[in-house]
Fold this protein.
Amino acid sequence: MNYEAVIGLEVHAQLLTKSKIFCGCSAHFGQQPNSATCPVCLGLPGALPVLNKRAVDFALKMILAVGGRVGKQSVFARKNYFYPDLPKGYQISQYDKPIGVGGAISFIDGGIAKSINLTRIHLEEDAGKSLHPENASQGYTRVDVNRCGTPLIEIVSEPDIRTPHEAFLYLHALKQIVEYLGICDGNMEEGSLRCDANVSIRPIGETTLGTKTEVKNLNSIRGVERAITYEIGRQIAVVSSGGKVVQQTLLYNDADGKCYPMRSKEESHDYRYFPDPDLVTLCIDDFWIAEVAASQPELPIARRERFVSNYGIPAYDAEVLTTTLQLADYFEAVVEHCGDAKLASNWIMTEVLARLKDQQIDISEFAITPTRLGELIGKIKAKAITGKIAKDLFELMLSDSRDLDVIISEKGLAPVTDSGDLKKLIDKIIADHPDEVARYREGKTKLFAFFVGQLMKATQGKADPETAGALLKARLDE
Ligand code: ADP
Ligand code: MG
Ligand code: ZN
């Protein structure tokens, strides 16, 4: 029997607001444990939550970016459960009236455009963090409640994803959108973007959904892909041997690539959801929506398309160059400084990205600023250096921030354009290679490249290609 997988993802994105969602405490990551707290986020009796407008703006940005519908009247609800890192005993979330409904996230999978529908986007607060000892016999689990009340949006997809790779691409696209919007830093390793994967299988052709499991503890996009791959295999093995998939929550372990049972799945009625009596209905009017819409930045897909149409670069290059907002900005800054998008794209796609990979750094940490790379490309275009020498100069620029002209003259990198000097070298090459000259003159014109190579060797790559080529040809054809 052949099975297909059915996958739905729930993604939590931590919003980059300064303060928490219902109090004025700092939402900044990495503060002294338990220092950023107050009666509201600790859930002390009598404390009252007040909604952070910026968190709502950010949620609206996401809803508009994915083409979702804004819930004009959304309601905060208490989701009751006990956990040591949740001092209130409930989490303020949204239940049947979320702030966002529908929308979709699109991506390209092997040249095919795909779109995954969203069920909803809602606002909620985060819980705190339990810090477990490395070894159970050593000490206690400690609780840091700084994270309590940090604003989150939860983005829930329809069960429209069919392969682990689609899940990977979906998450990649989602991460790009929140980063472009500037509402979340998208860091899965640090937990500011978290994903739970819901997985089931069914015989191909079947239309009803199978029993799902929910995989948690996924802290990289590759990890999500691997965990889902494992879980699909496990479910197929269970069903093929006559068993039944049990609905449960699993924890993924990246070290061995396997999923382990964590708890049997709770149902929504276990949470005793009810509207939070301390918060009024959140009403969003058209004016508010229009205001957010007017502040939306250009999104990844639009930027990719503009790179192709404005700069005439291939779609693949545009996709790579728009991977992150910073890289896209870097590219455009280089183009601005050198006026040549194709050269800018080639240099970034090859030399720059290779260095970033070697040094395992981000474009924001790269030693060569876009202005300087633009200048370098400008020098090639102005024939102030040859293409070959430009690579050497680029290498030097990684650790030398002096003016390019200073480096060029100090290292003797300027091209040899003087025809007198070049002619002398050409004469010597002709004298040293009588056989090749004879064959060339008998019609083996392919040998021309050989002579150019010799001349480049004699000038350490500094012969100006145009002048050199013309002089060589003239001499050979004499
Ligand atoms: P729960 O109440 O268990 O959280 P939901 O119906 O809210 O379940 O769905 C949560 C996520 O699981 C959504 O992303 C949804 O698309 C996905 N999902 C629902 N049913 C299935 C299924 N049978 N197989 C795979 N994913 C599913
Ligand atoms: Mg769930
Ligand atoms: Zn607080």
About this structure: The CA atoms of residues 207 and 466 lie 66 Å apart. The chain has three domains: 3-290, 298-411, 419-476.
